[in-house]
Amino acid sequence: MKNRTILALIACAGLTIADWACAALPIAISTTDWPAWRGPTHDGIAAPGQSPPVRWSETEGILWKAPLPGRGHGSPTVVGDRIFLATADQAKHTQSVLCLDRRTGKLLWQSEVHGSSADFGKHSNSSAASSTVACDGEPLFINFLNGGAVHTTALDLDGKILWQQRICDYVIHQGFGASPVIEESLVLVSADHRGGGVIAGLDRKIGRVVWSEPRPKLPIWKERLGGDFFASPVMAGGHIYASNVAGKTFVFEATPKSFKLLAQNQLGDEAYASPVICGGRIYLRVAKRGDNRQEFLYRLERVLNILFIVGADVRRLKSPFRSVLSSEHQSLLTSAPTNPVESLVVFSLRFGYVQGRLRTCPKPNDRV
Question: Contact at 8 Å (CB) between 66 and 300?
Fold first, then answer.
């Protein structure tokens, strides 16, 4: 009887047995994730307790980089072991969602949301995939401007379209880039434009418009500070990260009293997406110009080389350093010589990944 009841529920939901068996399970959101545009708290402030890298280059601090098909300015969404991005094919005028493996950068799937009529905007720097995916561990939600109207689409974790809702007509000026926001049982969508537009709340499960409020027809104005910046700044560990259009990311401290520039880092030739900081890593979406323009997603980490010249005291090395060592590296410390000038321990610390080696120096003045 219980089995018949389960089968009846599946049938009522419009699912086949294969769908039920193969559907991806929900992902548990953690503080090491970046589930939507502007991060876990929607304000560009990363979770506390992180120490993301301050300096990097094409040859330093890169865990992996992955080529991305098409073009888009939406930021990466990092949830569990997956990364989601929006992209558009300028030749085919299609709009899609990409899913990459968080650990390796491998493309897991690409799901076409609109097969034609992508709107690329009137500004030379705009794209037809400037929105950022929102995901709280279950369905994905994405906005696209397509065929003169804004549409919101829900997909499951395997890229299957669950529903799609037309929000309103859109009078295009520069382009469209508003991202969906998940709020309890609703998906909030903003579609401001020169013709007015709307802000709407959709039922996250079926896409029905629960409420919709028209926006007033106000004049458009903007103020630009500090040059060509399309991406939004992100704060982590007291530092602010801001990427300009040319692919340079500035890292600085800003208080009501002072400004301090910490670093300038160049990756690629273009950057329109906002940086994402989670799990102590930085995810940057950039592009390299050329005959065949190519976009890349970078995963960056902080590389800190620590040199300890130690002797008998190495066995009594205290936390927090000892707490991040594996059992193998713990044994390195335990087996260190007791003569301070004969033991040299070198560790390369990469945010929780510690590589170490023990070397005995024949002379006190020897160096690694």
Answer: no
What distance in Å separates the CA atoms of residue 339 and residue 360, rounded to the nearest whole number?
Answer: 10
d(CA 230, CA 34): 19
Q: Which of 230, 184, 234 is nearest to 205 (CA)?
A: 184
Q: Which domains does the chain have, with CATH numbers?
A: 26-224+278-300 (2.40.128.630), 304-360 (no CATH)
Which pair of structure tokens corresponds to residue 306? 């620590």
In this structure, what DSSP letter does residue 362 have?
S
Q: What angle do CA 158, 87, 202 make, to 5 degrees?
A: 65
Helix, strand or coil for residue 100? strand
| 243: helix, strand or coil | strand
**Cβ atoms within 10 Å, residue 301:** 20
Interval 112-170: pLDDT, tens: 999 998 877 777 788 888 899 999 998 999 999 998 899 999 999 999 999 999 998 88
Q: What is the 3-state secondary structure (H, E, C) of 178-204?
A: CCCEEECCEEEEEEEECCEEEEEEEEC
Between strands 294-300 and 276-278, the pairing is unpaired
